[in-house]
Amino acid sequence: AIQLEGLEKIYHEDQPNIAVRAVNGIDLTINHGEAVAIVGPSGCGKSTLMQLLGCLDRPTRGSYRLEGQNVSRLDDDELAHVRNRRIGFVFQSFNLLARYSALENVALPLMYSSVDNPAQRARAVLERVGLVNRAGHLPSELSGGQKQRVAIARSLVNQPAILLADEPTGALDSRTGEEIIQLLLELNAAGTTLIVVTHDLALARKLKRVVRLRDGKVEADGPPEQV
Amino acid sequence: AIQLEGLEKIYHEDQPNIAVRAVNGIDLTINHGEAVAIVGPSGCGKSTLMQLLGCLDRPTRGSYRLEGQNVSRLDDDELAHVRNRRIGFVFQSFNLLARYSALENVALPLMYSSVDNPAQRARAVLERVGLVNRAGHLPSELSGGQKQRVAIARSLVNQPAILLADEPTGALDSRTGEEIIQLLLELNAAGTTLIVVTHDLALARKLKRVVRLRDGKVEADGPPEQV
Ligand SMILES: Nc1ncnc2c1ncn2[C@@H]1O[C@H](COP(=O)(O)OP(=O)(O)OP(=O)(O)O)[C@@H](O)[C@H]1O
Ligand SMILES: Nc1ncnc2c1ncn2[C@@H]1O[C@H](COP(=O)(O)OP(=O)(O)OP(=O)(O)O)[C@@H](O)[C@H]1O
Ligand SMILES: [Mg+2]
Ligand SMILES: [Mg+2]
Q: What pLDDT sits at residue B84?
């Protein structure tokens, strides 16, 4: 489903003394329905890689083929279509809209597709993450872990083929985190391709494959016991 | 150093069907130099309690004595003085200023006190958290774990008597997280009172005392093995 070749993302490439090679040459293939954990030290390029995978940013160099299509050849409309209909994205810092309630934030991706009863679909995913009793709250009226769960619910409401989750349990206590891990594993069992950045080794071990990054490169790639 | 009696924080108290009893009657005493972990499920009131402890918000009811003074009797100037000089605060969502670099964000609390060489002091704490090579970056040019470490550095630059840290390792991989835990333990060994909200049970176990919250109340309070 996903094929990366020689992928690079370099910030400030034109200013050598402050250039940062955030992603520095990555080759990676991820097939339909896989469950992959991406791990590595703070600052090693995980979120940058996720933004490239999620078509939220363009690489400096290299190629990204998504379901057979070279993503860099898509125009802005086609890219937006892929982003909204095929991919679900959970941001490391949630990125909720401050003036909209939890329910409205979750329902937002449904505006791109014509579904009947968006409020009901949004409410159903909010229930999945244990937050139907916070539906009317603004992000400023939610705890850290509640915001994180709203972000997770929002990523699922369009039933994406590929779910990209950047540290989805980072703000959760272990019990709530367990419930979210179960939810992610169920989605994967039902066919969703799952790519999860995490520093929660308990979560990483439950996925079949772990890719470890260091300094923008793949350092190891295999089953959890080996990586 | 800290004495809470019957402390409450109720959001929308005047609207019974949406009122939230975030802190619902807490009695707690924390002495000088203690190291306390605050744990509990997502949404149980930990961050709200921290905001009250950090004098960033006023309780609905109950009293908070800080080093013998009833905090609710202080006027805004005295409150600001306590907040800036006696207390260091690490926010769950970092709260960095977007238009200032890492170095400027860290140096910010020094503006309230007249220190010579604030840039040097800021650079020294940035070095402590492994980020001196990111001093010139804006928050948008930092990874999640880097932003978290800048927030930690900022909380320390005034050498506070009390450090309140709301999930300080939430965005960090285990190795970087270890380094931060070591830093916090060293500060406590040197006399800083340490109050840490965490769902990282490894960190909680390293502190002498764990206070477990549920639904805005203290459910258990004692050494880690018991709680
Ligand atoms: N401004 C507000 N209005 C209404 N309810 C609020 C407001 N702020 C917080 N809450 C609610 O108060 C409760 C406690 O929030 P708090 O942020 O203290 O939780 P927490 O223990 O820090 O959770 P987490 O572990 O997820 O960070 C939550 O259920 C939240 O929805
Ligand atoms: N706009 C930018 N300009 C310059 N450098 C940047 C920019 N954005 C990110 N970086 C740098 O790129 C590197 C990779 O960042 P990234 O966010 O991908 O790390 P990460 O692996 O997700 O880290 P964490 O685990 O802390 O979230 C970091 O060292 C960061 O400082
Ligand atoms: Mg990241
Ligand atoms: Mg919190």
A: 85
